[in-house]
Amino acid sequence: MKKLRAARFLALGTVLYGALFYTIGAAIKPGYSSVSQFISELNATGTAHAEALGLFGFLPVGTLFAAFLWLATPVAAVEGSSRVGWWLLWSHPVAFISVFLAPCDAGCPETGSTSQSIHNALGLLTYFAGAAGLFLVASAPVLRGSGARSLLRFTGIAFVVLFVVMLMPEVADVRGLLQRVADALLGAAVLVLAWRVVER
User: Fold this and answer.
1) What's the confidence (pLDDT) of residue 166?
2) Looking at residues 25-30, what average pLDDT do you find?
3) What is the CA radius of gyration of the chain?
4) Using an 8 Å Cβ cutoff, are 113 and 79 in contact?
5) In this structure, are residues 59 and 51 in contact, taking their beta carbons and an 8 Å threshold?
6) Does the predicted model carry a pTM greater than 0.85?
7) Which terminus of the chain is less hemmed in, N or C, by CB atoms within 10 Å?
8) pLDDT tens for residues 45-73?
9) Torsions phi, psi of 106, nearest 5?
């Protein structure tokens, strides 16, 4: 029971800290737009407050997410494909921590420094792995016939669709907004995992 409560506390902490970081980070970053800029541009190399936003933003969010998954794994009601999906969920904290370790260049271009290349590769890998993880976890028997299953599946599909769309030049003016929609869905999914999948 203590492990269950702690896991749920960490899930809630991950979501709340992430939302707070996005809000404060955007407010203190000179000239930053949450609508048109990627979230990872908060700590883009050579930009204002980049190191602080990486150290006190992306790193803690990723660490909290990882701590939730680590603590929740023994009490998660997953089996078969949903267990495979659960392990793929680790790509989400990896994504946040990798933004800290390999920040993008200013403007987050398709090509650039070595750090930008690593950033792009990890972003591609973790987005699709994370989407697959959410979709597969939805197959957990404990979620059969529930709205929670639909939310997880929808989020997994939306992650892929939004990732592809936000890279299109035609939507450059709102790509930040699209990414935040994806992260809002991820936040809801984390709470579903904590209260519907983590149950024993």
Assistant:
1) 94
2) 97
3) 17
4) no
5) no
6) yes
7) N
8) 999 999 999 999 999 999 999 999 999 99
9) -55, 130
